[in-house]
Structures are given as structure tokens and as C-alpha cells.
Design goal:
This protein is of the alpha+beta class. It is built from five helices and 17 strands. It has helices spanning 2-21, 44-47, 122-129, 180-190, 239-245; strands at residues 28-29, 36-39, 53-54, 58-59, 64-68, 75-77, 82-85, 89-96, 101-109, 134-135, 141-144, 156-164, 167-175, 191-197, 201-206, 212-218, 226-232.
Length: 254
């Protein structure tokens, strides 16, 4: 009798285990219909996966990731779901767990653009861009290195936010000279050229909001970067005097 009970218990345990195994879901849990927007990742040999975008997807079964580049090599994707931005452009990633598959659109930009919410507080900037790597004078400047959850671009060494009376009035972005040709295309796509001031400063207006002014000039610092500054038209008295008198930040390097 005891032997029979032991055998019955073992059989019940095996059946219970089998039932648990059969309860695995075949669903591929990725429900975001919006395209993934990320910036260039930079050379893997230099930055590793620091600037890659990790796809937020889950499944009870192993997922395979496949990069679909229709117009040149824009992205690659690792088998743990990290998207590496190689070139500016659009691509797709196919997700497949053996039972269900989904395709995700991916847009790779040159860099993450600063917010145009001029007049907002430093707290709002932190909400949008995270905490700065270094803070300058209180109520004057916040300095950001380009590191964030969506993979800020290796093309940029620094983003600065300037404040007056606790309100945001300017953003600067420093662009590495190695991608200056991409910067020219970015400005052509998003801004209308206005004029050149002096020998080096090119002035543009945002196509969607002409009150947003963008200036491009060679910063001639030790890295010979290009600088883009963003400001609202009515927040500066003149381009020349503003550039001459505005506060400057110390450079960050990573």
C-alpha cells in the first residue's frame, strides 16, 4: 500500500510539472506601435554598447532579432536585443519567438535635439534629458554629456542649457568634426538658411517654428568641434552681441 502511494505521488508530480510546462505563453509581448527613435551609437570598438538602444520586449520563448536595412546599412541588432545605430536613416527590426513575429520601425538621427520649450525651468530640463553630468553656476547653466536611455549620439560631446531668472533661454550642442557633413544635411532637412554673420556664423530658422533660431559656427576649441546654438528670436538683442557676452561652460570629455 505504501509503495502504491509513493508511485502515485511521483506520477502526480510528473503530471503537475508537465502541466506547468504547457502553460508557457506563445505571445510576443511588444505592443508599442510607435517607431523607435535613437541617435548614432558610435564605433563599438570605442563605446561598446553604451549608446545602443535596448528593445523592451518579452516572451516565454527565446526571441531572435533581425535587422532589416532597406536603404544602406543603418542599424545592426544583437541577439540580446540591442540596436546599434550605424548611419542616419530608417530601418526595421524583426522580432520572432518561433510562434509570433512583429516588425518594429527604427529611425536613427544624428543626435537628440534639445527641447524648444524656452522659458521652462531647470527641473523641466532634468525631466526631459535626465540629470546633468556636471553643473556650472546655479541658475546659469546645466552641462550634459550625451548619455541617456535612448542612446545619445557619439557625434556630440556636450549639450549645455543656459538659464536666466530660473528660465531656460538657450541650448548649445557640440558636434564632432568627423560628422560635419551629416550636420549639413540635418540643417537642410530641418531648418531654413537665413544669413551668414561675420566670417563663420551661419543662421537658420526652424521649418516648423520659425521663431526658433539655430546658429552654426566652428568652436575652435581643442577638439575643433562645431557648435549649434538654439534660441528663440525674441530672446536675443542681436546675434553678434549675444555671442560675445553669453556665459560659457568648461568642456567635458568622455
Amino acid at each position: 500500500m505504501k509503495k502504491t502511494l509513493v508511485i502515485l505521488a511521483v506520477v502526480l508530480m510528473v503530471l503537475a510539472t508537465g502541466c506547468k510546462k504547457n502553460k508557457k505563453s506563445k505571445a510576443l509581448n511588444y505592443n508599442d506601435s510607435n517607431p523607435i527613435v535613437m541617435a548614432l551609437s558610435g564605433p563599438s570598438s570605442v563605446y561598446g554598447t553604451e549608446f545602443d538602444y535596448t528593445i523592451d520586449v518579452s516572451s516565454d520563448y527565446d526571441i531572435t532579432y533581425t535587422a532589416i536595412n532597406e536603404h544602406g546599412t543603418v542599424i545592426s541588432v544583437s541577439q540580446d536585443g540591442k540596436i546599434h545605430g550605424i548611419n542616419v536613416g530608417t530601418a526595421k527590426v524583426k522580432l520572432d519567438n518561433g510562434y509570433e513575429s512583429k516588425t518594429v520601425d527604427v529611425n536613427v538621427d544624428l543626435f537628440i535635439e534639445p527641447t524648444f520649450e524656452f522659458g521652462c525651468s531647470p527641473r523641466r530640463i532634468r525631466t526631459l534629458h535626465g540629470n546633468p553630468k556636471n553643473t556650472g553656476t546655479v541658475d546659469t547653466i546645466l552641462v550634459y554629456q550625451y548619455i541617456g536611455p535612448h542612446g545619445y549620439s557619439y557625434a556630440c560631446g556636450e549639450m549645455d542649457f543656459f538659464f536666466h531668472n530660473n528660465q531656460y533661454f538657450e541650448a548649445d550642442v557640440y558636434i564632432r568634426p568627423s560628422v560635419e557633413y551629416m550636420l549639413g544635411q540635418y540643417l537642410e532637412d530641418n531648418f531654413n538658411f537665413v544669413t551668414i554673420l561675420g566670417d563663420t556664423l551661419s543662421v537658420y530658422r526652424n521649418k516648423l517654428d520659425p521663431t526658433v533660431v539655430c546658429g552654426k559656427f566652428a568652436s575652435h576649441n581643442e577638439w575643433d568641434e562645431w557648435c549649434l546654438y538654439y534660441i528663440q528670436e525674441d530672446q536675443e538683442r542681436s546675434f553678434a552681441s549675444f555671442l560675445k557676452n553669453r556665459p560659457r561652460s568648461s568642456k567635458l570629455r568622455y
